[in-house]
């Protein structure tokens, strides 16, 4: 199938990383449908996306944590395109706070946003992807690989997503479907550092509201993360960590947890600690 006839569904494509992924897929010939909960944001994203590209973009409004909404979304995909080649599960929500203060309701919300949305969409996509031999790419985070301080229930939710992704990959491979995980560090964006200001507990260091809960990593260009997603789809790469050199630190942490903790503290500590 020529790429220009391929169809991709990008959840959370109206903003942030999802928008950039939609743009990259369109630039590579995919016809794209983006999904979010707000008509205005979706329409505005579609207007900007279609301005620079000849490839088609459409939107669908729904809450992906709601199973009926997801059924409606996949009926719309079948009606409009009749096929699906790639599903990028990008909806997700980060968090700030100490694990000792994590409320059950907050954890449930984070699991709904980061795991349930992905589960529902992936389950609904299997039939279409089996027919096309397509791919699912889930967007994790470094919090899918390590549990840093001050990130509330984010590591619990993204580790759960990582485990689910690997299980999906093993179960769906015999059916010809690729399942990948892309786990980026903090991504560069205009409001980085502002998003959690005001919502972080005053007892935490002020840098807890910074990207990654105050890691010393430079923000990744979103285009780089989007290209990694394309690579996972096209080359069937199972697991990508960005920046790539962190895979060594993650592997050390798994093999030698004491050293892993020491390295993690070193990467996330500041003079005030
Ligand atoms: N930002 C970072 O630095 C960073 C770093 C590593 C990993 N990530 C991961 O990358 C992904 C995108 O993050 P982001 O910061 O770019 O997100 P974002 O800017 O907050 O955008 C989230 C997108 O998802 C949509 N959305 C949220 N909840 C939804 C729901 N229940 N149903 C349907 N649509 C929903 C939002 O639209 P509406 O709100 O209008 O529905 C929006 O389009 C997440 O999985 C995140 O964990 C982000």
Written overview of the protein:
By secondary structure, the protein is an alpha/beta fold. The chain has one domain (3-193, 217-248): 3-Layer(aba) Sandwich (Rossmann fold). The protein has eight helices and seven strands. Strands 3-2-1-4-5-6-7 form a seven-stranded parallel beta sheet, sandwiched between helices. Helix 3 (67-80) packs parallel to helix 4 (104-132). The chain starts with 6 loop residues before the first strand and ends in a 5-residue tail after the last helix. The relative contact order is 0.12. It binds NADP nicotinamide-adenine-dinucleotide phosphate (NAP). NADP nicotinamide-adenine-dinucleotide phosphate (NAP) binds next to helix 1, strand 2 and helix 4.
Order of helices and strands: EHEHEHEHEHEHEHH
Low-confidence stretches: none
Q: Architecture, CATH level 2?
A: 3-Layer(aba) Sandwich
Mean pLDDT: 93
Bound molecules: NADP nicotinamide-adenine-dinucleotide phosphate
Overall number of strands: 7
Classify the beta-strand content into a percent band: 5-15%
């Amino acid at each position: 199938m020529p790429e220009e006839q391929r169809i991709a569904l990008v959840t959370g494509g109206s903003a942030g990383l999802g928008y950039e992924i939609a743009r990259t897929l369109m630039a590579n010939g995919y016809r794209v449908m983006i999904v979010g909960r707000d008509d205005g944001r979706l329409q505005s994203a579609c207007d900007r996306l279609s301005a620079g590209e000849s490839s088609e973009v459409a939107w669908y409004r729904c809450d992906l944590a709601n199973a009926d909404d997801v059924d409606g979304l996949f009926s719309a995909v079948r009606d409009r395109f009749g096929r699906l080649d790639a599903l990028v599960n990008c909806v997700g929500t980060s968090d700030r706070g100490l694990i000792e203060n994590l409320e059950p309701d907050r954890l449930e919300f984070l699991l709904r946003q980061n795991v349930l949305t992905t589960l529902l969409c992936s389950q609904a996509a299997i039939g279409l992807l089996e027919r096309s031999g397509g791919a699912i790419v889930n967007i994790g985070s470094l919090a899918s690989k390590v549990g840093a301080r001050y990130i509330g229930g984010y590591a619990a939710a993204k580790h759960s997503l990582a485990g689910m992704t690997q299980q999906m990959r093993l179960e769906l491979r015999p059916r010809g479907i690729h399942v990948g995980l892309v786990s980026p560090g903090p991504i560069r964006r205009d409001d980085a550092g502002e998003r959690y200001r005001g919502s972080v507990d005053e007892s935490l260091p002020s840098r807890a509201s910074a990207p990654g809960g105050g890691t010393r990593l430079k923000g990744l260009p979103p285009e780089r993360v989007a290209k990694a997603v394309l690579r996972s789809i096209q080359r069937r790469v199972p697991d990508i960590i960005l920046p790539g050199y962190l895979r060594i630190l993650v592997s050390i942490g798994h093999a030698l947890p004491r050293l892993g903790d020491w390295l993690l503290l070193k990467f996330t500590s500041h003079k005030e600690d």
